[in-house]
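Write out the 3D structure for:
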Amino acid sequence: MIPFVAALALVPGTAGAGSSGVGGTQADSSFAQSASKKHVANVLATTQQTSCYTPEVPYGYVQTAEGYSGESDCRGASTTGEALGPYPTQNGSAAGYPATTPMLVKGHSESNIVVDPTNPKHLIGSSKWFVSPEGYNHLLGFYESWDAGKTWPAQGHVPGYEGWTDNTDPVGAFDGYGNYYNFVLGYQFSYNLDGSHNFDIGAHAVNPSQPQEVVAMAVRPKGATSATDWKTTVNNQPDFVATYAPIGQEPDKQWMAIDDNPASPNYNTIYAMWVVFNFFSSKPYYSTATALPDGTHTAWSTPAVLPTINNSASDTYLLPHVDGNGTVWTSISNFPSRQGFTTYSVALDYSTDGGRTFNGPLVVTPTEGAILAPYCCYSNTNTRSGISDSFAVGKVANLAGGYPLYVTWEDYSTGYSNIFIAASDDGGKTWGATRKVNDNINQQTDEFQPNLATSSNGTVSVAFYDRRLACPAAGPEAGAAGIALDINNPHYPNLPPYGASNYCANGAVQFYDASLNPKGANIRLSQHSFDPELNAALYSAGTNIKHGFIGDYFGHDDSSTLSFSSFVSTYNDGTNGANRQQQLVATIAIP
């Protein structure tokens, strides 16, 4: 759903003084050319099919700038083969719901991508699937490739949970058999007369036949090829992990991992984790099950609370990963209320027994002194910040038989967002020196939303959004980027933003060896800069443009030879004439 805090500055507790992780800075011209020099492949995956679905709640308002065009009837445009609705979970909706017709999907923001451990050419990406970016009206969607990301023939909304106004926070994982699990967060709201959101769902439920907030699972079994090949029910009801009444019990920030290592004592254990907010306080929960070969699973365990620092409130950002010994690790971030949520710290919890018990927390960063980055927005734009840190486990054991741990984070202490990384080689007891990831020569630009991945050859990669390159000047490149559409931004006076600095965005990646020695400089992942203002999802909308959304996180995963990233682009490569938010997939060989 919506995080209440955003990118913060972190400094690992045992780390030395920050040093450049890339050996200095890189000229903008060198970074701009690096995509072609390193043979980065780009494809707009979500323009390859046209998707439609019937939303539970229609949105009838239209913005008049930034490319918005309101909701549109599908009118037979869908090419995905997905069911167009209405759907079983919409039975029992209140009067006036669901919408009377399927609507055209017009946006795809927030990015997740995973590689099938049984077939490295098989990828599934997921994102929010918007029929109305203006109204923040979306379901989860997926797109699938069997040729290492070159084509994406299967895609559509994730079925089974259409009876909630939104379902959200795309995240998925493959089990050891090649079945794909998508962890769903569903919640209900309606729209006020001015187009803003009404979360008073206790008194005015949109769909009283369903729990008003849920965390649940959808499974795409191995061998599935059509948009509708999903398992979403258990005992004739949706596959709920946990359900919640509204008002003070708000699940959010769900994430998951599955132990796909046949040699592990916890092989095919599914770890589902999420946070429950009680207004500004929050507690982290987890539940486990065991994946079965046919795409089903055992019953979910009773949700339990993870260990936290001093049993405190306001914990979030759970990012579980499993190491080669079968130990599951998760980062957990704490925002102390006594500091007005202006600082936070990161710790690790872990379980060696398949989630029956958890140990921790192991402190990664100091509990005091971190600095809050702007909740909204990054300089010059409406682009709001998202999840500020990422965690990963190395895939190559060290001499002691353990696996290295890596944490990366945003630091806003200079007034601009920079990215740092640190590692632990002793199970989180101590952490090495912090290293700066981004190598932009102009320090007055933002780099944000880092996401870590590791490869079986020991390589570590950090992918992120990067704003070092100026928007294109007036001309053909600016035309394809849709710069002329950008005419309503209260944070920037010179519109359209031709040539604007620290405004347009690209994807970028930095590679390291297992000891965090850099393998070359930052590499540009997108062949063209994009304008993040165009068709941005407006979660706090109404009639004013506020808090433009490209997602809370950046999609990133590595196979043994290739690094895959998925992220938003509004650039028109010839397939995106309306400059909508699409999912760009970038592929590069791992050095």
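The radius of gyration is 22 Å.
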